[in-house]
Amino acid sequence: MSKSKDEHLTDQQEGVEFARGPKSFIDRRAAATRAMLVTPDITRQPNRRTIDARQAEFEGLAAAINLEIVHSSVVSVREIKPATFIGGGHVENIAATVKEDKIKLLLLDCQLSPIQQRNLEKQTGAKVLDRTALILEIFGERAATREGVLQVELAHLNYQKGRLVRSWTHLERQRGGLGFVGGPGETQIEADRRQLQERITLLTQRLDKVKKTRTEQRKARKVVPHPIISLVGYTNAGKSTLFNCLTGASAKEADMLFATLDTTVRRRILPHKREVVFSDTVGFIADLPTDLVAAFRSTLEEVTDAHLVLHVRDISNPDHLAQAQDVEDVLKELGVTPKDVPFIEVWNKIDQASEEQLVQARAQHRSEVPVVEVSAVTGQNIDDLIALIEDTLAKTSRIQRVILPHEAAGKAHWLFENGEVTNQFPSEDELSTVYEVRIPKNKMSGFLEEFGAYVLMH
Fold first, then answer.
1. What is the pTM of this model?
2. All domains of the chain, ordered by start, with CATH?
3. Residue 102 labeled ligand binder
4. N or C: which end of the chain has fewer CB within 10 A?
5. Does residue 391 have a known ligand-binding role?
6. Has 290 been labeled as part of a binding site?
7. Interval 321-337: pLDDT, tens
């Protein structure tokens, strides 16, 4: 039986067409685009977050770019529909709202297949973007460094590669000549795919070069290995505000998701004269699009070098527990846990949290990781945080004195690469060099194996 033209498009019925268009999904030259937000509430699908928190986060994502949010609603999804993700009744209601309120953009907080996206666009009359596309749009606007721009473009192209939707017909395939040439539509598809793949290959090569340069820069920093303190946390937890408060820097800070995408590094001398390096990283987010995971992890590589991790939490957010778990999951995948490196939990925004929220958070805290409650905006308890940072660094390393005769001078590079050399001077007989070096706990076994015979007892 033949299918009617009004039925949904499916992968089996249609051919392929390249989703052409600018790198931005939204026209930035025009006035704010009128948008409608839909947050699907999928029955029987476990989720750490309440539906209200998920809707609020999605609204925050949309607010991070030039959109006029006209409607935001939650729709119940008992079963995901292969054609449109949400049910037909919901689609009809959305289409009516789109027409009545002249909505130009429909955003869904889920990952849509190319066919679902296209069907929704046909039935609602609005341009449709899913969560992945929205986050790509934000990253495209925020990325500032060369590596960040390249990573976003690469993720964008990989996303577009998956948006190859089907358009050529049964008759066009019949008109094709040789089997390996295919019809006219298929020829264009292959050309588009080649162009996409060539650009992806080029970007990958450029990124490899940038990564090598960054690796060399990280090695150079180890020559003067001041302790690295990395700030991590869910997006909009206040990391950049805290970073500025701790370092006197002016990293971009804003009450929006993904205000910071690129790692910022600043040095500071602590009250007890110890010099450290603070590193502000991109914010985490739940359900990060697959195409951005590589970019995200690349930016977070700095955390793997940290001597101390400050996990910044927005303690005023009702969903702070779920956010913290998302952050911990990603860090665990990177091999960064309290067992590997010292952690301090920084409960930020206490000026916005109620006493009830703070009491509940304290009661729920089961980890052995120490906690400092602060407000990066008002500066409340920042001195307590700095004191804890100094105390933690002091506990995780010991000052050793090593005397190396000139014939063993080549061993000194290990001290600079794995410890913090605080002083060096010639011995009394001037036949050796004395090094005072701070060795982290996790490097002590290697230190003793390499320098046991040269350690000065004190």
1. 0.71
2. 33-140 (3.40.50.11060), 224-394 (3.40.50.300), 397-456 (3.30.70.240)
3. no
4. N
5. no
6. no
7. 999 998 898 888 878 89
